[in-house]
Amino acid sequence: MDEKYSPKAIESKWQKIWETTKLFKVKEDPDKEKYYLLEMFPYPSGKIHMGHVRNYTIGDVVARYKRMRGFNVLHPMGWDAFGMPAENAAIANNSHPAKWTYENIDTMRSQLKSMGFSYDWDRELATCTPEYYRWEQWLFLKMYEKGMTYRKESFVNWCETCQTVLANEQVEAGMCWRCGKQVRQKKLSQWFFRISDYAEDLLIHCDKLPGWPEKVVTMQKHWIGKSFGAEIHFPIENSDEKITVFTTRQDTVFGATFMCLAPEHPLVLTLSKGTEQEAEVSAFVDRMALQDRSVRAVESYEKEGVFTGAYCINPLTRRKMPIYTANFALMEYGTGAVMSVPAHDQRDFDFAKKYGLDIIIVVKPSDKELDPAAMTEAYTDQGVMVNSGQFDGMDNKKALDEIAAYLDENNLGKKTVNFRLRDWGISRQRYWGAPIPMIHCKECGIVPVPEEDLPIVLPEDANLLEGGKSPLPTLDYFTKTTCPKCGSPDARRETDTMDTFVESSWYYERYCSPHYHDGIFDKAAVDYWMPVDQYIGGVEHAILHLLYSRYYTRVLNDLGLVKYKEPFTRLLTQGMVCKETLSCPEHGFLYPYEAKGSGENRQCTKCGKPVVVGRVEKMSKSKNNVIDPKTLLEKYGADTTRLFCLFAAPPERDLEWSEQGVEGGHRFLNRVWRLVSDWTELTKDAVLFNGNPDELEGDIRDLYKKIHETIKKVTSDIEDRFHFNTAISAVMELVNAMYDADQQKNTPHAPRVMKFAMESVALLLSPMVPHFADELWNILGHSGSVLLESWPSYREDALVKDELVIVVQVNGKLRGRFTANADTDDDALKEKALANEQVQKFINGKPIKKTIVVKKKLVNIVV
RNA sequence: GCCUGGGUGGUGGAAUAGGUAGACACAAGGGACUUAAAAUCCCUUGAUCCUUAGUGGUCGUGCGAGUUCGAUUCUCGCCCCAGGCACCA
């Protein structure tokens, strides 16, 4: 055995062996229990970052552990390969998104391989390949047949200069991120998935996801946003039309004194037409259309609006209510119209005060009167109904039901529920995505592409246009087609591509049979592997990706393609990888090498000013606080990098980067290496001891017991809690104990027990540091990978403590301790406790009121 | 504002069922080895008090109360930090 631990040689050696022996390849095996472990697949952005390293290390530990526990483990990896960054990079480098993407995939694949992750690489997939997205298109057609997808007009961020649609994050303070010009809201016809049909089902099942973090479940519930209320119809004066509002406060309908419509509401322009308000209203609507959504969401956003010139009638009071259009009314929620009750809603109150509108109290607290003129804020608490006709005197909570019933009986409205969740707009006016398989025919309208014509291949020879505009609409050979229904040559292909969240909503099913040609997936394979037993990824996907995936699974279920409704049985959201930021008042964020000196007195290398040590924040290129895993791999190797990620914090918490911490991890591996190196000669011919502890004595007996305790501890830490940090610290304790056993080298059983200890360490560490463990395993006289071994088990008889330390308390305060045999009875313990000198001092002759004995732990004497 | 986490030594963290607070590691200090350094190994390390230096006293898990023989752990009220949602009618 080499004196020195050299990770580079060991890691490349084992990675080669794993690859050539196809160690990680799996197939369905009905005789074995399956375990599907999935980590969120990466976007191929260039190279892997610490977030990936952490995510995939956690997953790999579980995958390897489960495999050693005898499960048939599916552990795949692939690429979420469509998306905008590829287009941006292509424009920046005058290249092509496909070239950029595939090059990145090659780089990142080799980086992941150098981390030693146990992926079945034969299942690798990239969502940008026609083999993948053809099934996405196929599914789109199935959904279209069932009416699960539809087309409607909706607003997008549009940059006139660049002639392109912008994602929300590409809009900076209302301006285009690339050209800096004003972004406006443009109405476009787009494709939608009817996710809102599943709102109720998605919500109900939120409570049937016990393996999910509560945080994620509540975020989803909140996003779905079910609220109970009523729809109420308000007839428009001098018209047959009516405005329908959604409200959760139908108890306050008697206090509704005006109406607010969202600026985008179709009635706004119709109602003001021909009135003297027309010019003002249309100016306001135009101004709102130009306003960026993020500006509108700011807390201090001033409520404003314009009178439309029209009135509607309160159906219960017959009161004439002016109709306004107001910036705080949202077209996307409810019906886009709000019945305004200034007395009992803060926004309506602010608005009424600003424009001098009437305030009528309809709910009052039981103990005092309210005066509309004197109020400084709306009264939103519960109370007693007033000014509400036959409902006066009623508790307002009761009135909620009563008024809803009344509205229903008189056809003035009805009780209803409303969801915040809106249908999923999947159209992207982008190039680098899966084409939507539809055809627009002048004669027949929208016609689906016939199944046998799939895939509609994204032309990869297209070049991106100035400003990121999609070239698809300009490519005649792509767009020109004949109508499959009427045969007209005057048909045009849909040029929108699908949202990339669609690809990530079913990739885990495709992994089950990634090369299957006869369908979206091999049903038998999916039936065997799915659902995913453990999913691991960043909390940033807590809402959209996970909700879309849950929705898509329901679609597959309704289409009879899968048997389950929920794709992920257990979910772990790992914390972020963070590091302190360094900045200079003049030069902004600094790289660590731009700060000279140490500790408190660092200076900027550019200007000499003192460096400000900022908060510990998520690693981000813009903050110059990233660590490239590549440098870690070169300096310490994959095993140390993995070990640090696991040891520094439990997985769900944020991990703070620490160079010293990495070194500590490296030191530990060296320490184990030296220990094994010291003992190999002595233990070479020894017969491993794994018997009853009673055959041993003294320190060796203690060490032997410690091994079994460690096996138990590590097993439960991984199995029950995923707390790898404490699992590692348990092994560290064992290694420390093994060093202490050095003096025992010459005792008869020492080499035999030590051999057992070393093998246990190799087995227990193997999920975390697999190359290191495999090398040790072979040094210890075995062959092949530890992954093929069974996870070690512990002997119950080795866990029995010979002697227990019993703590003695007086009035709950620790006063002494003594050792006792495990089978000492309560009375004897009591006696021994009282005999303690220190204890006697604190009892000090006072009468003993009570004595509490907790078996095997403590005696508490109450005086 | 609402929701979800979290607050423990100089630092990351541990304490899994209310029962020895601070495991394990980092950092720091001291020592050994060495011509020297690195590496390694050993010791000390929450604060504080003491004519008894101990198997010692007191305080100590964000703050204040409560339940209990006993609370980092449970209950109530508050403060602070992080993340998410947010004009949702």
Automatic annotation (TrEMBL):
One of its GO terms (molecular function) is ATP binding. InterPro entries: aa-tRNA-synth_I_CS (IPR001412), aa-tRNA-synth_Ia (IPR002300), Leu-tRNA-ligase (IPR002302), Leu_tRNA-synth_edit (IPR025709), M/V/L/I-tRNA-synth_anticd-bd (IPR013155), Methionyl/Leucyl_tRNA_Synth (IPR015413), Rossmann-like_a/b/a_fold (IPR014729), tRNAsynth_Ia_anticodon-bd (IPR009080). Residues 221-407 form the Leucyl-tRNA synthetase editing domain. Keywords: Aminoacyl-tRNA synthetase, ATP-binding, Cytoplasm, Ligase, Nucleotide-binding, Protein biosynthesis. Residues 41-182 form the Methionyl/Leucyl tRNA synthetase domain. GO terms for cellular component: cytosol. Residues 421-579, 617-658 form the Aminoacyl-tRNA synthetase class Ia domain. It holds the Pfam family Anticodon_1. It is an enzyme of class 6 (ligase). The keyword Aminoacyl-tRNA synthetase applies. Residues 702-826 form the Methionyl/Valyl/Leucyl/Isoleucyl-tRNA synthetase anticodon-binding domain. Belongs to the class-I aminoacyl-tRNA synthetase family. This is Leucine--tRNA ligase. It comes from Desulfonema magnum. The gene is leuS.
